[in-house]
Amino acid sequence: MNHFVGEAYDQISEMCIFLLNNFNLPPDKALAVYLQSPGSAFVFCGAVTLARPSAVLSLQWPEAGSAAQMQLTAGDSSSLSAKIGVSVEDITALRSLDVVAERRIEKLAMKVGENLFNFMQSFCGVDGSKLVVPMDILDRWFKKFQEKAKRDPDFLKSFAL
C-alpha cells in the first residue's frame, strides 16, 4: 500500500474483487480478503466463492498499532506498511470470521437506537430515579422516522455505514 497510496491507505474505503472466468477454485473453498494497518494484525474483510464470484467489500481498516509495537517490528520495514492479503480458505471456516458484517450491523443499530433515545429524551419526565415517557412514545417515534424517510431520501443514507 505504501507504493500506491502511502499513509493515506485508510482513505481507501472499498475494493472490488472477482474471480476470472477460467479461475479454478474448489467449490468448498473461498478467496478470503484481509486488511492490515501498520503494526496491527490482519482482520478479515470478506470473501468470494464460485457461488459468489465477485464482491465490493467495505474496507474497515483496523487501528494502527502503537509506536511500541511498530518499533519492535521496525527491522521489518514491510510491517510499517498497510497491506491487503488474499488467501484460499475453507468456506465453513470463513462464516465464523465475518466480524466486519457484524460490526456494521451493530453500528447501524446503535445509530437507530441513538435516534430513538434522543426523541424519547425530549418527552421525558423524571420520577425519582426513573425516566417517565408517554405510553405511545415508540409509535410516535416510528411514525416520525417513517415520515422523515419518505420526505428526505438522504435521511436513511445518514445511517449508512
UniProtKB/TrEMBL annotation:
One of its GO terms (biological process) is protein import into nucleus. GO terms for molecular function: nuclear import signal receptor activity. InterPro entries: Hikeshi-like_C, Hikeshi-like_N, OPI10. Residues 8-94 form the Hikeshi-like N-terminal domain. It comes from the Eukaryota. One of its GO terms (cellular component) is cytosol. Residues 105-157 form the Hikeshi-like C-terminal domain. Belongs to the OPI10 family. This is Hikeshi-like domain-containing protein.
